[in-house]
Amino acid sequence: MKSSIARYDAIRTPAFVLEEDRLRANLELIRSVQEAADVQIILALKAFAMWRVFPLVGEYLSSATASSLHEARLIAEEMGKRAHTYCVAYNPDDFAAILSYSSHLTFNSIQQYHHYQSTIDSHTAPISCGIRVNPEYSAVDTDLYNPAARGSRLGVTETAFDDGLPEGIEGLHFHTLCESSSYELEQTLIAFEAKFGKWLPHLKWVNMGGGHLMTREGYDVPHLIQLLKNFKARYPNLSIILEPGSAIAWQTGPLVTTVLDIVENREVRTVIIDASFTAHMPDTLEMPYRPVIRGAASEVQTGQPTYRIGGVSCLAGDYLAEYSFEWALQIGDRLIFEDMMHYTTVKTTFFNGVQHPDLCLLRSSGELEVVRRFGYADFKGKLG
Predict the structure, then answer these.
(1) What would the DSSP string read from start to end of 214-231?
(2) What pTM did the predictor assign?
(3) Which SS3 state, helix, strand or coil, does residue 51 take?
(4) d(Cα 251, Cα 234) in Å, to the nearest integer?
(5) Of 9, 17, 51, 156, which one is least surrounded by beta carbons within 10 A?
(6) Residue 126 and residue 50: Cα distance in Å, rounded?
(7) Nearest to 16 by CA among 352, 291, 204, 314
(8) What is the DSSP letter of 354?
């Protein structure tokens, strides 16, 4: 199994490595859904914002979605597109700039829309406005990731439209999925249409948000396509937008780390790697989930070398429970955490000042490009 790690032996660690061939394969599948279902699928920067590959993404997808001024500006500068922008609340200091970078604006409340309506009306370029709605249904079990949990601050419920659609609103946006299946989207659409269906004939678009993990092995892509085609047949006036994040970068590359030390405390052996779960892989602690480590079993295997995996920060909980390996680990070994390009890269921090992972791109030719190497200036510049 160690031989499968050899291709990464020359990489300075820690490093995120995006594999171009895998990214392109995902984009080809996503484009096939887009064309077959006659919908628009756009990149959600909140999950994947490695702008060096935006030209590649632009070969397949027509635009991207932003959750802030910085993301909208990045889309404009590096994709040459105007963003579909949704902010939980718009900062008045940013709003004029956001307008200049956006083709669509979705508001989290009718109150926010009315607050900015006159500014939008006086803007020179056309802006299509929408409201985020909460169908009060979600199959997401973890409340931290569930936008439709009771009392959610994300989106309005059906009672917000008791007096009708606000003048100037052209679309509705919902986002209730998280790495979900087409069947969970089907249940969401049932709830969405039950609560908001009477308004759909009067609109121009519906944004079905993210969480559509169509590039995951076993995802029923034909069912998704038929589901979307059926929805369009019911509402031929509507343009349909999906904005997956994880699906674009799903299984497109690992985080490569090195074992720095092996410590033992009351028969618990912990390997210390040169990366941190809290700083570099926060979803492993938040969700939580257990990432796949190449060459390791996620369940303890009797008779095999077994270790807790510890991060390099001082946070006591910066570790993952035991993995079993096919060989006894040694200081200097590489540990490769699979599928670390979506969300992980955009949520990293400089906590403890630990070495931030490099961003690398493994080209189709086999050439490894170091896209960005972080250092002391990045850590210092973040704090003053």
Answers:
(1) TTSTT--HHHHHHHHHHH
(2) 0.94
(3) helix
(4) 35
(5) 9
(6) 28
(7) 291
(8) P
Geometric angle at alpha carbon 313, from 310 and 315, rounded to 5°? 85
Buried b (16+ CB within 10 A) or exposed e, 4-42: eeeebeebebbbbbbbbebbbebbebbeebbeebebbbb
Q: Per-residue pLDDT tens for 294-314?
A: 999 988 999 999 999 999 999
pLDDT digits (tens, 9 = 90+) for 180-234: 999 999 999 999 999 999 999 999 999 999 999 999 999 999 999 999 999 999 9
Amino acid at residue number 202: H
3-state secondary structure of 12: coil
CB-based contacts of 330-333 (< 8 A; 24+ apart in sequence)? 330/259, 330/262, 331/259, 331/260, 331/261, 331/262, 332/258, 332/259, 333/258, 333/259
CB distance 333 to 260 below 8 Å: no
Intra-chain end-to-end CA distance of the chain, in Å: 45
If one counts every other C-beta atom within 10 angstroms of the C-beta of residue 209, the result is 25
DSSP conformation letters of 191-207: HHHHHHGGGGGG-SEEE
Q: Do the beta carbons of residue 66 and residue 102 sit within 8 Å?
A: yes
Short-list 319, 317, 371, 304, CA closest to 341: 371
Question: What's the length of the chain?
Answer: 384
Tokens read off for 213? 């993990």
